[in-house]
C-alpha cells in the first residue's frame, strides 16, 4: 500500500458499514478535532489472528468510559467490525487502528454531550515500527516534556490528547537522529517512550516502571508474563533516571513496537544482549501461535 493515508485503495469500517477508503471522512466541526475527545486502540493481526483482540476491545470501551464517552458498541460488535475490515481488505498480517470519537452534532464547545459517539476501524500492512532497530537497537532521546499526573488526566485511557507531547517529543528526537524519546513522569521517574513501555536489565533481573502514571500496555503485561514463565525476577517500581547508567540491556514493548531492543538513551548505552533477543524471539512465536 502506497501514498498518503487519505489516498489509498481499500475499505474502512465506519459507524456500522464498510465505506471506500477515500470516502471515510468527517466534518470539520467534529468535536474530536477541536477538543481531542477521542480514544483508540492499535493492534496487530498475525496470520489472520488479532493478538489480544478482545482485551483491546475491552480496553477501548474502558477508555471511552474514563473519557465520559459511552461507546455505542459491545465487545462482540467491535470484534465483528475488526474481522469485517480485515476480510474486506484481504489482510492476514496487518496493523489495525480502532478509533472512537465525539462527532459533529448539536454542540460545538467544550461540552458536547449531545454529539454522537462514532467509531471507525482501519487496517493496513505495516512493517517494523522502528525499522532496523529491531536488530541494531533503537536510539532514544530524553524528552523535555513529562508524563502528567493521574490527577490531571485519566492516564489509564488510551486517549488522543495524551499523545500531543508524544508527537512533539518524537519530532524533536528524529531531528537529532534518534528513533524515539523517553519520558520522565511528573515526579521525575522514568516513564515510557512516546508509544511504548520500557524495560531494563541488570544482573539478570528486569526492571520496569510502575504503571501508576503510564498506560499499562497489553504487550507490557504479556512480556512480564513471559519473563516470569522463564523464572526471571521482574521489579515493577519507580526508576530514577540516574539508574540508567547501571543497566545493561533495554527494550521497548507495544503493539506497534512489539519487542524492540534499545541501544542508547541520551548518553547511556545498552547492549542488544541475549535476554532481549530471547524475549523478542519468544514474543514473535507467541503472537503467531
From TrEMBL:
Signal peptide: none annotated. Keywords: Amino-acid biosynthesis, Aminotransferase, Branched-chain amino acid biosynthesis, Pyridoxal phosphate, Transferase. Its EC number is 2.6.1.42. It catalyses: L-leucine + 2-oxoglutarate = 4-methyl-2-oxopentanoate + L-glutamate; L-isoleucine + 2-oxoglutarate = (S)-3-methyl-2-oxopentanoate + L-glutamate; L-valine + 2-oxoglutarate = 3-methyl-2-oxobutanoate + L-glutamate. One of its GO terms (biological process) is L-leucine biosynthetic process. Pathway: Amino-acid biosynthesis; L-valine biosynthesis; L-valine from pyruvate: step 4/4; Amino-acid biosynthesis; L-isoleucine biosynthesis; L-isoleucine from 2-oxobutanoate: step 4/4; Amino-acid biosynthesis; L-leucine biosynthesis; L-leucine from 3-methyl-2-oxobutanoate: step 4/4. The keyword Transferase applies. One of its GO terms (molecular function) is L-isoleucine-2-oxoglutarate transaminase activity. The keyword Amino-acid biosynthesis applies. It comes from the Bacteria. It is an enzyme of class 2 (transferase). Its cofactor is pyridoxal 5'-phosphate. Belongs to the class-IV pyridoxal-phosphate-dependent aminotransferase family. Acts on leucine, isoleucine and valine. This is Branched-chain-amino-acid aminotransferase. It comes from Litoreibacter halocynthiae.
Amino acid at each position: 500500500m502506497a501514498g498518503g493515508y487519505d489516498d489509498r485503495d481499500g475499505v474502512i469500517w465506519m459507524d456500522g458499514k464498510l465505506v471506500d477508503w477515500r470516502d471515510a471522512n468527517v466534518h470539520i466541526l467534529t468535536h474530536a478535532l477541536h477538543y481531542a475527545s477521542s480514544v483508540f486502540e492499535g493492534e496487530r493481526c498475525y496470520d489472520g489472528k488479532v493478538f489480544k483482540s478482545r482485551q483491546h476491545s475491552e480496553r477501548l470501551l474502558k477508555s471511552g468510559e474514563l473519557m465520559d464517552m459511552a461507546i455505542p458498541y459491545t465487545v462482540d460488535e467491535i470484534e465483528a467490525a475488526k474481522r469485517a475490515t480485515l476480510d474486506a481488505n484481504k489482510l492476514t498480517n496487518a496493523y489495525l487502528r480502532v478509533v472512537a470519537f465525539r462527532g459533529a452534532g448539536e454542540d460545538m464547545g467544550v461540552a458536547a454531550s449531545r454529539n454522537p459517539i462514532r467509531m471507525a476501524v482501519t487496517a493496513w500492512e505495516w512493517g517494523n515500527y522502528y525499522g532496523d532497530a529491531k536488530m541494531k537497537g533503537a536510539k532514544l532521546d530524553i524528552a523535555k516534556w513529562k508524563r502528567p499526573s493521574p490527577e490531571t488526566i485519566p492516564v489509564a485511557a488510551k486517549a488522543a490528547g495524551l499523545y500531543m507531547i508524544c508527537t512533539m517529543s518524537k519530532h524533536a528526537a528524529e531531528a537529532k537522529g534518534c528513533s524515539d524519546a523517553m519520558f520522565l513522569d511528573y515526579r521525575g521517574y522514568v516513564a515510557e517512550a512516546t508509544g511504548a513501555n520500557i524495560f531494563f536489565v541488570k544482573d539478570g533481573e528486569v526492571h520496569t516502571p510502575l504503571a501508576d502514571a503510564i498506560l499499562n500496555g497489553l504487550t507490557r503485561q504479556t512480556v512480564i508474563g513471559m519473563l516470569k514463565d522463564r523464572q526471571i525476577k521482574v521489579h515493577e517500581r519507580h526508576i530514577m533516571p540516574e539508574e540508567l547508567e547501571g543497566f545493561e540491556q533495554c527494550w521497548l514493548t507495544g503493539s506497534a513496537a512489539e519487542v524492540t531492543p534499545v541501544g542508547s538513551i541520551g548518553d547511556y548505552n545498552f547492549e542488544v544482549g541475549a535476554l532481549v533477543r530471547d524475549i523478542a524471539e519468544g514474543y514473535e512465536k507467541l503472537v503467531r501461535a
